[in-house]
Fold these 3 entries.
Entry 1:
Amino acid sequence: MKRIIFLTLAALLLSCGGPAAEPNTKPANEAVAIVNNNANRFGELVLKLLGDWTDEEAEPGAVVHERWSRTDDAFYSGIGFVMVEKDTVFIEHLRITVDSVGVPSYHARIPSQNAGGEIAFRMSTCAGDSMVFENAAHDFPQRISYALQLDGTWSVRVVGPGKDGNLRIERLRFKRRQG
């Protein structure tokens, strides 16, 4: 029972709590410049994110899943969930959109939080094999990064202040799900 409570709490810490806030980490013209300089790289990286991914090592007894699909050139939808045995203990709805000026944003919606509303994170960096999305006005997380590793896995970091005010970093290592 303690393990299930811990996993549920861990999943909630990975989630987006607090009031919805507009992503406002960089001025719009600076964000556009970042994306324009790396538009091709963003397109390549987000396509590599498509599919089913799992992290079976984040917590013993739990499997963290993300599933991404492409709706069109400017919209990618995903779902994240945590399974403990056959029970889903956490679920979030994800999407990556590209606005009319070409700036990508990462959106997360957890039905039980923020009155069911989305939290948006504007892309702050797209370089090499990494995509970083930020929302400094949000409580936790404030930064979500996806880094493609040489072995084809994704290293995901979810960063922001913890409830105690200290920096909290959650790390996931997603492997492509086989079968």
Entry 2:
Amino acid sequence: MDDVTRPEVVAGAAVDAGPAADAPPASVRAASTVMALQGLLLAALVAATVLWEDVLVTAWASDNPAANAVVQEGGLTALDESPVAVPDFVPLAVVVFLTLVPIGAVLAAMLRHRAAWVRSWLTAGAAGGVLAAVLATRTGAPLAFTVLAVLAGVTCVALLACLWHPATTRWLARPARVATA
């Protein structure tokens, strides 16, 4: 139930209605769900990177003249043995996953606990995610990665919508209810 329909909200001010008054609105719960979905998409990206690393290297090599020449003459094996520096996609994907998922989990928890400043950080991250998704669709990456990039971009837009929903704004503006003994 959103703040607008909850009886304990009168003219935008919270009336102490017990623990239910501190429950986050649907928009904040939806933001947490979207962030969990983003973690799953990152896990899928890591799995796709591991499974199709050769496809990624081939796509990368097609845009690099020196690497492309080596691949045309001797394949990916020749590229591994050449002086051309090939990007390590798997370690990069794993590090991104191991960095962003825990940070996202902490920020989601802090948002649910009414840390209003978190919205700015999540907004910046989501805007960066939209930009990364747009750029990823323009790289000529394999279809699976393009689909994952588009899905990630859509979840970033959904997160922005949740973060800036009026119910989220009202909820973050209210002071947290402090339990007294």
Entry 3:
Amino acid sequence: MRSTTLPYQAATAATLALIGLLAVGIYLIGLAPQAKAQSVKAGDLMIEQAWARATPPGARVGGGYLTITNHGAAPDRLIGGSVDFAERLEIHEMAMQGEVMKMRALPDGLEIPPGGAVTLKPGGYHLMFMGLKNALEQGARVPVTLAFERAGRVTVDLAVAGMGAKSHDGQGAHGGHGGHGGHGETKMQHNMQQQ
């Protein structure tokens, strides 16, 4: 009598290998950028690499990131902005104070020095979308109107990357809290002022 165990084991191993390859493919697709970040000029300012992180359903806050380069001879200041997908937009800063990561609103805005650039990124300066009306979905583009003292108002589309993304191209999707603390002994403290 012949044993059918060996062909069954080979078929099972092949099926498991195929499932593993499929899982890796799905993972890599999740890391790939879904929408290319755009560049926008406003007066002497160039706004580039504008992106946001996807949020889970029911989330009340989200984050936006970008780089602002000032090609002019005078400073400008990001003083606020508006969005349709949240109740309000605030400019925030995260910084370590001792062993505690603190986040605070910047009610006076953020200076963009002449001939310099400021990058809003996870774990540093960022846009905070307060009171989200809907989840930010990976692959979408969301319009944000930024307000500057000198350059005025300009609308930029933010490409929505994955939930754990650390950059506009979606890389670093396993960043966990993405600079919002929670790793090792680091503690997070929110110091947000209502406007």
